Amino acid sequence: MTQPTAVSTTALKTFSLFQGLSDDTLATVSRLAMMRRIPRGQSVVHAGERCDFVYLVLTGSLKVVVSDEDGREVILTILGQGELFGEMSMFGEQPRSATVVAVMPSDLVMIAKNDFRTILQGNFEVAWRIMANLADRLRSADRKIESLALMDVYGRVARLLLEMSEEVNGAVVVVRKITKQDIAKMIGASREMVSRVMKDLAAQGLIEETGAGIVLRDRLQSV
């Protein structure tokens, strides 16, 4: 990690978590926050460590992973711009449940857990957004359990792509860079099987891999 630097209120306004706050409140948050650049491949936090900070992704992308004693890795999710992690540390003193690794150079805004708790206590809207984020994460976990239990690999790949997609100029696109190996680790399949599924989906005209990302067609939802 690089040495921490100051965070401007302009940078904070890019996060939906802080949108609508007064300039005075943003200035207070800015004084409590700091920013670090994380190189590609470097871990930000490790599973089992104590939780001292809440992190917000200003730029870049990171993967949240768990692994066993043999080094086998499962990717729980991919985090991108505007997302946060570490907020569960404010609800109890349990150690971190997963490791977070930068998949590309990433700028993170860091706020000490106790300072973040103070921000929540003084700003109901921010606290409400945190609760909504946790609820979304729980629903996502429920969907993942469902897909692992009830869907074949085709269905799991399709659901993951749909969940990661966003609308860009009228098209539905997975903009974030994600490898077939990462997809395999997220859905509990082999990279070879994911490659075959992606090839089949492309041949059926359900997806198209372009320089801008993976473009999804409407019929993919029926897979």
Automatic annotation (TrEMBL):
<keyword id="KW-0238">DNA-binding</keyword>
<dbReference type="GO" id="GO:0003700">
    <property type="term" value="F:DNA-binding transcription factor activity"/>
</dbReference>
<feature type="domain" description="HTH crp-type">
    <location>
        <begin position="151"/>
        <end position="220"/>
    </location>
</feature>
<keyword id="KW-0805">Transcription regulation</keyword>
<dbReference type="InterPro" id="IPR014710">
    <property type="entry name" value="RmlC-like_jellyroll"/>
</dbReference>
<dbReference type="GO" id="GO:0005829">
    <property type="term" value="C:cytosol"/>
</dbReference>
<protein>
    <submittedName>
        <fullName>Catabolite gene activator (cAMP receptor protein) (cAMP-regulatory protein)</fullName>
    </submittedName>
</protein>
<keyword id="KW-0675">Receptor</keyword>
<dbReference type="InterPro" id="IPR018488">
    <property type="entry name" value="cNMP-bd_CS"/>
</dbReference>
<feature type="domain" description="Cyclic nucleotide-binding">
    <location>
        <begin position="17"/>
        <end position="137"/>
    </location>
</feature>
<dbReference type="GO" id="GO:0003677">
    <property type="term" value="F:DNA binding"/>
</dbReference>
<dbReference type="InterPro" id="IPR018490">
    <property type="entry name" value="cNMP-bd_dom_sf"/>
</dbReference>
<dbReference type="InterPro" id="IPR050397">
    <property type="entry name" value="Env_Response_Regulators"/>
</dbReference>
<dbReference type="InterPro" id="IPR036390">
    <property type="entry name" value="WH_DNA-bd_sf"/>
</dbReference>
<keyword id="KW-0804">Transcription</keyword>
<dbReference type="InterPro" id="IPR000595">
    <property type="entry name" value="cNMP-bd_dom"/>
</dbReference>
<dbReference type="InterPro" id="IPR036388">
    <property type="entry name" value="WH-like_DNA-bd_sf"/>
</dbReference>
<dbReference type="Pfam" id="PF00027">
    <property type="entry name" value="cNMP_binding"/>
</dbReference>
<dbReference type="Pfam" id="PF13545">
    <property type="entry name" value="HTH_Crp_2"/>
</dbReference>
<dbReference type="InterPro" id="IPR012318">
    <property type="entry name" value="HTH_CRP"/>
</dbReference>
